[in-house]
């Protein structure tokens, strides 16, 4: 889990997903692991998976504000046209880079 947090903070979401998946196999009811799986999938734009983990976190504890926030983000992004979903968390991407690809590579910070 801790390795996954470091990878997530470094922006290495694909590796973080692997680390959190391993932690989930060991502790499938850990709310911390489940929430990080939700946020990591969100960063990778795996909307259905992110929704699954945020919903699972709420089933374990309905008062989990972070899971409610995550679900709201997923729902909000899925309502937008695909072009407006691109690089939503990256202020460094130019409009032309955003138009090229759902996951532009103009910046290493792009999720």
Task: Considering the chains and any ligands shown, give keywords for the structure.
single chain, 111 residues, mainly alpha, 7 helices, 67% helix
Short description:
The protein is mainly alpha-helical. It is built from seven helices and no strands.
Mean pLDDT reading: 80
Give start-end ranges of low-pLDDT stretches: 83-111
Helix content percent band: 55-70%
- Report the C-alpha radius of gyration, rounded: 14 Å
Distance between the termini: 20 Å
What composes the largest sheet?
A: none
Strand content: under 5%
Give the total of beta strands: 0
Order of helices and strands: HHHHHHH
SS-based class: mainly alpha
What shape does the CA trace take?
Answer: globular
* Helical run tally: 7
Description:
The protein is an all-alpha fold and 111 residues long. Helix content is 67%, strand content 0%. The chain starts with a helix and ends in an 11-residue tail after the last helix. Mean pLDDT is 80; it is low at 83-111.
Lay out the secondary structure.
Blueprint: H1 2-9, H2 13-26, H3 31-43, H4 47-60, H5 65-79, H6 82-85, H7 95-100
Helix pairs in contact: 1-2, 2-3, 3-4, 3-5, 4-5
